[in-house]
Amino acid sequence: MRRKKQYYRPYEGRRKPAWLLALLAVVLVLALGFVVLLGLVLTGARDSVTGQPQVMVILGCKVESWGPSVLLQDRLDKALDYLEDHPDLTIVVSGGQGPDEHQSEAQCMFDYLTDHGVDGDQILLEDRSHNTWENIRFTQELLEQEGVDASQVVVVSNGFHLTRVRMLWGRVWEGEYTLSTLAAPSSHVPSRLKMYIREPLALVKSYFFDR
User: Fold this and answer.
1) CATH of the domain at 95
2) CB 105 within 8 Å of CB 95
3) What is the DSSP annotation of 96-113?
4) Cα(147)–Cα(150) distance, rounded to whole angstroms?
5) Domain assignment of residue 32, yes or no
6) Burial 41-80 (b: 16+ CB within 10 A, else e)
7) Pick from 202, 189, 178, 203: nearest CA to 74
8) In contact, 82 and 116? CB cutoff 8 Å
9) Which residues does residue 178 pair with via DSSP β-bridges, in sequence order?
10) Which of 88, 106, 193, 199 would give a disulfide with 125, using CB separation of 3.0 to 4.6 Å?
11) Helix (H), strand (E) counts: the chain
């Protein structure tokens, strides 16, 4: 009696289920997207001054019980450095009061600047905003109310913030303008790491919803 031959195939392993392959593909796409967005954030984290700005806008950040947070102080110190050579600018400090803040970010910035020799008469307080979109919108409204020429503006914020600022500025400002930026350092390392994770996601959110 002849035995039936058996053919053995090399071990190929188990095929991964389709849902797992789809999940891995989604994760890969999201990871690549995050890397691209992080690259945009990093690219925008630079000083870029064009022309002769007549207005300086300092964007708010967390206020602590003792005064400006480290990130906010970084912004203010960057502004003070620039003001040493450009002392006649109109300054807007922009930031409202959060539920865990004892005063508005604008007032905190005003106090810090005047304590370091800036004339309070050249500072305008925008103290209603609670996010970057409102910072820019309400700053524009304030400058229009005060009759200030805002065609050439320099914005001061931490470097990670500036890509989003440039994007939103173009949505708010009408007519011709020149936007310069000053990138403050982020001295507090944990906050810097947190913001470089958060900011690419905030960039997506602002792109779709801040209009």
Assistant:
1) 3.40.50.620
2) yes
3) ---TT-SS-HHHHHHHHH
4) 9
5) no
6) beebbeeeeeeebbbbbbbbbbbeeeebbbbbbbbbbbbb
7) 189
8) no
9) 152
10) 106
11) 6, 7
In a domain, 28, yes or no: no
With 70 as the cut, is the pLDDT of residue 12 above it? no
| Residue 129 region by backbone torsions, left for phi larger than 0, else alpha for psi between -120 and 50, else beta | beta
Class of residue 16 by CB neighbours under 10 A (exposed 0-12, middle 13-18, buried 19+): exposed
d(CA 7, CA 166): 67
Domain extent at residue 77:
43-209
Which structure tokens are listed for 152? 């050439």
Question: Is residue 68, in this structure, part of any structural domain at all?
Answer: yes
Sign of CA dihedral 97, 98, 99, 100: negative
| Model confidence pLDDT, tens digit, residues 17-26 | 888 888 888 8
C-alpha count within 13 angstroms, C-beta hemisphere, residue 89:
25
Per-residue model confidence (pLDDT) at position 9: 58
Q: What is the number of domains present in the chain?
A: 1
Which pLDDT belongs to residue 211?
87
**Residues contacting residue 15 through CB under 8 Å, at least 6 positions apart:** none
Question: Tens of pLDDT along 111-164?
Answer: 999 999 999 999 999 999 999 999 999 999 999 999 999 999 999 999 999 999
In the chain, the N- to C-terminal Cα span, in Å, equals 83
